Recover the amino acids of this structure.
């Protein structure tokens, strides 16, 4: 699904990523670990070009999305993102947060189709009978888009047991509830892959479990996920690939049994001895 080729990211003279090469297949659960400041979060943010890479390629379904000529917003529709600090809009209710992106993008597409048809209608006035172009078929309305988005949002909230919180504001939720809402907000776009940037690090220990349980359920359903985390137990249990990044480079990538049971890189051995 994603090929990362010689990815580099520099902030001035600081080389945060220095030649990252990795392949993510459909259905992979890739957990990225490493010490603070090693480049983990920058790597994740480069995958959907929230940070523009300094060099290298990110091939997503055959398209280099790191190319500045590519409309990254088209490809971001297929990449969900879950942040460390939730990033919910506090001036919108829980269900409005979930509905926001699908409604906005589908209404944008609807407007584009209507504008296209107006242009076709006008230009057809100057074309011969056999040269007239057919308009784009429009099968929905703004009201239907909103209605369907609300139905989907309610289904997602039902799934995580928070349907009764649909019309409250995020400030009234616990940290674990906010993060579960943030995850289903990503799911509302039907993404092909979800990027998780330390999704449990801002939570109280007792709230971590409810978020990890939701992520495990997604893994069991075959969702492709790339997860930056310090939860080693989760990595062992759920991941099929574990990646160790230090000083902007991948020092080891292996299945969890081999990664934790028989680490080969000396720096990884040192790191695991401190965190396990």
């Amino acid at each position: 699904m994603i090929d990362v080729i010689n990815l580099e990211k520099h902030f001035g003279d600081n080389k945060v990523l220095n030649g990252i090469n990795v392949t993510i297949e459909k259905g992979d659960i890739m957990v990225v670990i490493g010490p603070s400041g090693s480049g983990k979060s920058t790597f994740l943010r480069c995958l959907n070009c929230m940070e523009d890479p300094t060099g290298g390629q990110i091939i997503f379904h055959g398209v280099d999305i790191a190319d500045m000529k590519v409309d990254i917003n088209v490809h971001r529709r297929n990449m969900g993102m879950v942040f460390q600090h939730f990033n919910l809009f506090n001036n919108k209710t829980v269900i409005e947060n979930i509905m926001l992106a699908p409604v906005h993008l589908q209404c944008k597409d609807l407007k584009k189709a209507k504008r296209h048809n107006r242009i076709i209608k006008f230009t057809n006035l100057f074309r011969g009978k056999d040269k007239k172009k057919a308009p784009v078929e429009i099968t929905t309305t703004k009201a239907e888009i909103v209605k369907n988005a609300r139905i989907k949002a309610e289904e997602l909230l039902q799934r995580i047991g928070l349907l009764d919180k649909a019309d409250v504001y995020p400030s009234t939720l616990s940290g674990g509830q906010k993060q579960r809402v943030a995850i289903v907000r990503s799911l509302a776009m039907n993404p092909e892959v979800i990027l998780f940037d330390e999704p449990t690090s801002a939570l109280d220990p007792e709230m971590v479990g409810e978020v990890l349980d939701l992520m495990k359920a997604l893994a069991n359903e075959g969702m492709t996920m790339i997860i930056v985390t310090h939860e080693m137990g989760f990595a062992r249990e759920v991941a099929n690939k574990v990646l160790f990044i230090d000083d902007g480079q991948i020092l080891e990538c292996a299945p969890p049994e081999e990664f934790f049971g028989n680490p080969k890189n000396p720096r990884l051995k040192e790191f695991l001895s401190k965190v396990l």
Summary: The mean pLDDT is 94.
